[in-house]
Amino acid sequence: MTYLGLAACFVAACVPLFAVAVWRRRPDRRWWASTGLTLLALVVLTAVFDTAMIAADLFRFDESRLAGIFVGLAPIEDFAWPVAAVLVVPAVALLMTRDKEDRP
User: Fold this and answer.
1) The model's pTM
2) Cα–Cα distance for residue pair 35/40, rounded to 1 Å
3) Which UniProt keywords apply (predicted)?
């Protein structure tokens, strides 16, 4: 399996949870803005720090299993993990919060 295939499976497993959370809770614009800014920040940090770690030769990838698309030195597959985190963490937080009418 390629790194891209593994990353796609992982992100695909996170999408239903995100969809259910959005469908059930109907978040407002503020939630969407903060989730989008979180995604942007994590993607930028991934690009910067993955490039730095790869340049320092802290780890290597099997070139035959990469898609061949890079942002800096970071392969595109590495960006699936922050995307998955932004799908899961806000969705779980959204599902765990109570509505105003649910509060005592």
Assistant:
1) 0.83
2) 9
3) Carotenoid biosynthesis, Isomerase, Membrane, Transmembrane, Transmembrane helix
pLDDT value at residue 100: 64
Higher pLDDT, 22 or 2: 22
Residue 72 is given by DSSP the state T
Is residue 103 a part of any domain in this protein?
Answer: no
What is the DSSP code string of 5-67?
HHHHHHHHHHHHHHHHHHHHH---HHHHHHHHHHHHHHHHHHHHHHHHHHHTTS----GGGS-
Domain range for 68: 3-98
Which one, of 71, 89, 79, 76, lies nearest residue 17 by Cα?
Answer: 89
